[in-house]
Specification:
By secondary structure, the protein is an all-beta fold. The protein is about 0% helix and about 60% strand. The protein has strands at about 15, 20-25, 30-40, 45, 50-55, 60-65, 65-70, 75-80, 85-90, 95-100. The strands form two sheets. The protein has a six-stranded antiparallel β-sheet, with no helix packed on it. Strands 4-9-6-7 form a four-stranded antiparallel β-sheet, with no helix packed on it. The relative contact order is 0.28.
Length: about 100
């Protein structure tokens, strides 16, 4: 595999929990994830940072200060930490996103 090019087609899908599958590549202290969410994903609070782009579908994300909807073409910038805790709900049949995250 070329160290500067990621061929997601060569990576296996992993399922960290019901309703989520992803392909992950680690480079140093960063992860690049191609993620597919389905409506089977159980609602859960997350305090991990997510920086990425919605490729397909629609995701509703609840924060302490309200709810935001992210759709195809939207960027996502959620910092890491408890003060940015969030809970996602998939509004479409499925949603696909690419995220760059800290390990």
């Amino acid at each position: 595999m070329d160290e500067y090019k990621i061929d997601f087609g060569e990576l296996e899908w992993e399922s960290p929990m019901a309703g989520i599958k992803h392909k992950v590549i680690r480079r140093g202290e960063k992860l690049l994830r191609l993620v597919e969410y389905s409506q089977k994903m159980e609602p859960h609070w997350c305090s991990r940072g997510h920086y990425g782009y919605i490729l397909e579908g629609s995701i509703e994300i609840e924060f302490d200060d309200g709810v935001r909807v992210y759709e195809e073409g939207d960027g996502v910038f959620i910092p890491d930490g408890e003060e940015y805790s969030h809970k996602a709900k998939i509004l479409s049949d499925f949603a696909v996103a690419v995220f760059v995250e800290d390990v």
